[in-house]
Fold this sequence. Notes:
Elements: H1 3-23, E1 30-35, H2 37-46, H3 55-69, E2 77-80, E3 85-90, H4 95-114, H5 125-143, H6 145-157, H7 166-183, H8 188-194, H9 216-223, H10 229-250, H11 252-268, H12 274-287, H13 297-313, H14 317-321, H15 329-339, H16 342-349, H17 352-358, E4 362-366, E5 369-374, H18 377-388, E6 396-403, E7 408-413, H19 422-436, E8 440-446, E9 449-455, E10 460-464
Amino acid sequence: MPAGELRQLEDKIEAITEIAKGFGLDYFPMRYEVCPADIIYTFGAYGMPTRFSHWSFGKQFHKMKVQYDLGLSKIYELVINSNPCYAFLLNNNSLIQNQLIVAHVLAHSDFFKNNYRFRMTRQDMVESMGATAERIAAYEHEHGKQEVETFLDAVLAIQEHVDPGMTIRRREGEHEEKVRNSASTQYADLWEQDRPANPQEKKKKQKFPLEPEKDVMWFIEENSLELEEWQRDIMTMMREEMLYFWPQMETKIMNEGWASYWHARIMREMDLTSAEAIEFSQLNANVIMPSKTSINPYYLGLKIFEDIEERYDNPNEEMKERGVVPGRGRDKIFEVRELETDQSFIRNYLTQDFVEREDLYVFARKGSNYEVVDKDWTNIRDELVASRVNGGFPHITVTNGDYLKAGELLLTHNYEGTELDVTYLEKTLPYLYQLWGRPVHLETVIQAKPTVFTFDGRRVQRKTT
């Protein structure tokens, strides 16, 4: 980027920042870097400027770079949830493109800082991932690159199966234990000694785990007899990274909708020439263009936020009876930005009028064709909510870590109408076996029949129960 254009961009960033502050956006301190395409696509493939090396990231980079070279797709920006917040701009963007992106990433940073699901995420993750990369490189030097990469393959196959709510639950459990202990006296053990033994009492073997455990990564890391200490260390670090990314998976529609809402309003406040206004309109239309075959999160999130603002600015009689004060639409969307995830956002704010106005529908494949199968607004809402459950990943729990009393691992898929991808499942079970060290079983439903998949170290077997 020429020096003169860079100075222009710096001036525009300052103006955009002032406008964003005037609208009430509250974001982390911003750091902008203008980068060539190779750097942007490297960061996009790895998800971070500093992350450990793995062949799958290289595969993703190659795919993204080929699409860029062929003009099929283009990443205009990349923003990192951290404090300070890092935003990377493509060096061959036009000045208007970079202005739009700066406005867009400021709103992302506001969302990162204020949405409640991000409050447990580490804000020093750029540095933390750099430290993780160094430790993994040290393990490669000590144990061999092939052995470490083979282990990483297994961990990456199950990395989405974490539980971000585990920390809160465990803290509550520790608090309850402290309360129970404080209620007993210092002589409680003497009373226990005086109590006569009851020969009729039989010690029951506790379930393992006591309740179904959603955090498969944590359970294996803590309980596998197969793992060496360096492997547990890697699992701990990779689980931390996934917990960092998890809120972004839970709020994809909201986050992109919020950024799209604000980049449009900020850019309208800029002093644009006629040519710049036309270029901005074309760029904005491309970003929020609805799709007939899938959900564009930029479009859906934007339209729901705009609908909320309109309805709360001009409440109907029913809303007024609930205490909604006219003209509070802007306050309401800031409240929604803070308190909701994609699931609750859609469930609470997708209305019948909105569904009918946007002509939303459910379609399915019938024979060789795709057909519209449902236009009922409640079913459409529920279908969208279901697609966002668990960040869009299957909900799988550990239900028995000593299955068949042989130390085998039993997992259960909490089936809610969507079947697992059997090909993916059969390729993942050997990785679970590698991590657990003993046969692994997974219960699910295939073609309306309860089915158990088992990998015993040699082959995958399927049994319909």
